[in-house]
TrEMBL record:
Organism: Callorhinchus milii
UniProt key word Repressor: yes
Cellular component, GO annotation: nucleus
InterPro entries named among the record's database cross-references: bHLH_dom (IPR011598), HES_HEY (IPR050370), HLH_DNA-bd_sf (IPR036638), Orange_dom (IPR003650)
GO biological process, one term: regulation of DNA-templated transcription
Name of the protein described by the UniProt record: Transcription factor HES-1-A
Orange domain sequence ranges: 91-124
Pfam families with a match to the protein in the record: Hairy_orange, HLH
SUPFAM superfamilies for this protein: HLH, helix-loop-helix DNA-binding domain, Orange domain-like
GO molecular function, one term: protein dimerization activity
Subcellular location: Nucleus
Every BHLH domain range: 15-72
Primary site of residence: nucleus
Keywords, alphabetical: DNA-binding, Nucleus, Repressor, Transcription, Transcription regulation
Amino acid sequence: SLALSHTPSALFFFFFQSSKPIMEKRRRARINESLSQLKTLILDALKKDSSRHSKLEKADILEMTVKHLRNLQRAQMTVALSTDPTVLGKYRAGFSECMNEVTRFLSTCEGVNSEVRTRLLSHLANCMSQINAMNYCQPLPPPPPGQAGVTGASHAAFGQPLHVHLPGSLGNG
């Protein structure tokens, strides 16, 4: 029986079990180092004083980063819309395709509450009508309060500023 405890698989199991805490410690150290770098980057990007934000929680760092990246995405979309006339058509087509896929999925998904299904499809249809109303000559009105809007630069070919409202998520704006 002593010989069985020294089989290659038993030794591997012992080594693997004893190295788990070390691997977990390294994983946590990598996460914490990345969060520290992310904190520095996001505070610099938002022009915030790092000495006043020395004790940010991990969740706060991640939330600030997500919000900042969404704002950058919206700004890039606005620039693209104001400089490339094909972007809006591509965006419409992609949104429409995604909306159709959500509709197909919901029609086959039995676990979704009918009120939630109706609200989601209504929200997507409303977003789609806003997207379809977008054009380069007649800017959209500003988005409702609490929803992010982006104003792009004027484009000489279209003569006036481009105002774009990119649909946010349900409830969070």
